[in-house]
Structure formats: C-alpha cells, structure tokens
Amino acid sequence: MRNQKRPLGSRQPRGGLAPWALVCLMGLVGAGALAGAFAGAASAQAQAVTPEEVYERLFTSDAVQPEWFTDMFLAELPPAVMDAMIGQYRAALGAYVAAEGTAPFFRLEFERGFVDSQIFLDSAGRIAGIWFGAPEPKASELDAVLADFQTLPGQVSLIVVTDGGVLAAVNADTPLAVGSAFKLAILAALKDQVAAGMRSWGDVIVLEEQDVSLPTGILQDWPPGTPMTVQALATLMISISDNTATDALLRAAGRAAVERYAPRNVPLLSTREAFVLKAAGNEDLLEAWRNADVAGRRALLAELARRPLPAVSDLSPEPTALDVEWYFTVGELANLMAYVHDLPFMSVNPGVADPGDWSYVAFKGGSEPGVLNYTTLVVSHSGTPYIVSATWNNPEQALDEVTFYTLYSGLLKALRDLDAR
Hints:
It is a single chain. This protein is α+β, with helices and mostly antiparallel strands. It has a domain at 19-133. It has helices at residues 31-37, 39-43, 51-60, 71-76, 79-93, 142-149, 183-195, 230-239, 243-253, 255-259, 271-278, 283-291, 294-306, 330-340, 401-420, and strands at residues 96-102, 105-110, 113-121, 127-132, 136-137, 155-162, 165-170, 176-177, 204-206, 227-229, 327-328, 360-368, 371-379, 385-393. Strand 13 (371-379) and strand 14 (385-393) form a beta hairpin. Helix 8 packs across helix 9. The chain starts with 30 loop residues before the first helix and ends with a helix.
C-alpha cells in the first residue's frame, strides 16, 4: 500500500513512478522535456560555475542553499525536498566521487555506485533543471550484499533460489507484510482455473462499483459496467499494480480460491477493504477487526463493503496498522513466482532488473509506508534461472526506498556476475 499519500500499490521502478522520477522538475515529465525546455539555458554556458562544480557542491555540502536554484525551480521543488533526495542517494551509494560527461549529460560516481543525470544551468550558474536516474550499484560479491541487507532497521527477509536449490537466505521463514506482492496469489488461483477449464484468459469481466479502489492504477477512473478480459485485468494488476483490476479479479476468482495460496491471510482482504480499515474515521472498524477471530472477520466484510471508499487524504503517509496487510514468507513468494512467471504479462514490467543483463525477467513488487517487497525471476543468458525475493518492514519509520532498491539491484548484478564466471 503506497501513498503520497501513495496508496496500496506495487513499487514499479520501471514503468511506474520511482523516487528519482520526482526529480524531473518544474512540471516537466522527463529528461527529454527538460532538454527542450532548457536548450537556451544550456547554450548560455558562460556561468561562473561548471556543472561538475555544481554536482560536487550538491553532494558534499551539509545542506542545499536556495541561492543555488532559479526561482522557478524552487517553486516546484523546495530545498528541503532536494536535501532529502540527496540524502537518499548518499545513504544508498556512499560518498560522492566525481561527475563525468558533457553538458547536459553526466554520469555521477559515488563510493558504491553510479547515477546518470542531466543538469541545466542558467547564465548565473543556478540550477534551472535537473534529473537523476536510478542508482546503479558497483559490482559486489553476493555475501557482501546480503550483509548490507541485514543492516537495515526493522525486519528484513530474503531468499535467492536457483535450479540447484536455495543459494542464499536471510530470515526466509519469517512472514512479513508484502504489499501488492500478494497479487501473485490471485494470479496463481486464476492460472489454476484456466488450466481446469473453468475460465479462459479471454473471458470478460464487467467492472462493478464494489471493485473500485484507490491508486495505484488507472481503472479507478473508469466507469462501472466497463467490460474487460481476464488477461487485460491481469496485465494491469501485474504491470502497474492496478488495485481496481486486482479487486475485480479477486471477486472473479473467489476469495476462497485465492486463500489456498495465502493461508496466513484469512479472510484475504481486497485492496479496497484494506484501505477502508486503515482510513481515518474508521478506527472503530479497525479495532473490531483486530479483536475478531476468522469467523468474526468474515462477518465484518459486509460492514467493510458498506463503508465508502476513503479519499487518499484519509490515509496516513506514515506506517499505519501494518497488521492490516498481506503476510507471506519470501519462500512462499518465490514459489508463487515460480508458478506464474511464464504467463506473458509477467515480463511487461521488469522492475529492478536490467533486461539487458538477462534473457528473461518476471517481476512483482509491493509497498506501502513501512513495507517494501521485490520478487523477481530472472533467467541468465546461459539459461540458469534465479528467483530473488526480498521484504523490508519497519512499523516505526518510513523506509529508505533508494537504499533498498540499490541493495536489491546490487544483488541481481552479483548474481549476473556469479553466473558469468
């Protein structure tokens, strides 16, 4: 569950909004737009300060200063936000080393990794626009990456599985909240039903009012009565973690069928139901849910359905009621991924993995404040499969998503390098 208040949804580093995408500034949607908008500024390179000096100042100073930026920039992204973003990169990648490139394109080197960036300065040397890519860790040994995961505050679990068995594990039998990664269980139940001839991927499901949830996704803005195929809904559920598509598929598959793949989550909540329980104003219902047994919780589902869908503003940006979640071990998620990875839409969004490093990538992740999971199946160019599932929970504070992304990316690269030896 992610909200910006970013509600329930999977963290999709490719094909979704990652933290570094927020650094596309001044209302522009990407680096290409930046290049066009600031062509004039970039050509007026008579600044008293070079881009290399600007990067060094950004990443080595104790705090960014307003005078380093144009007024238009500051209207979109205040210094405090830049400070937090710079801090995330430094925490994930270590000390800043240098910038190499030709304006506006640069590759920034840090102690433990790299970041691609673009920068545009006005004639006074102030930052008029800037963009940072995803962190890229330097190659590291598998054991070193695993050790870094274990330094994260809170609870961490991780498993690496290959065709020869478990390659590495950290607290692999500990169930943790996994956010939208639970949607793999819905997919597994649907795959069973297709294999049994109970339905086909081309069957049509009509969206109902009860399916409408909060973002992530797009279908929450579509009208009830819209017909969608099972495959189209499943593609949206996996590739962009569409919550409304998820709840429609849960209704179609049947809660009991999905619970067979999620026995720790009975009754299994829809995303809408989880939002209702976590929303401000529904504390009475949350308390009743917490105090009820399985039968009592099933009885409460009717009351959950009667409560209106909350607004995003009713949800806290801080970790809230992490007991109202979907709990799986990383081993269970690895098994689910192994079962569904061959479905065609599993590779639409490769997540953290670089598709160029692998011959095949299947991905599903999940997040809400205090919860992160990435689960990926990759196949090396030599044909070796790997499944990597990692979960991080901390009910006390927001998670450093850039650090988790960097560690997970480093783990995948360590596996790539190990496979190439």
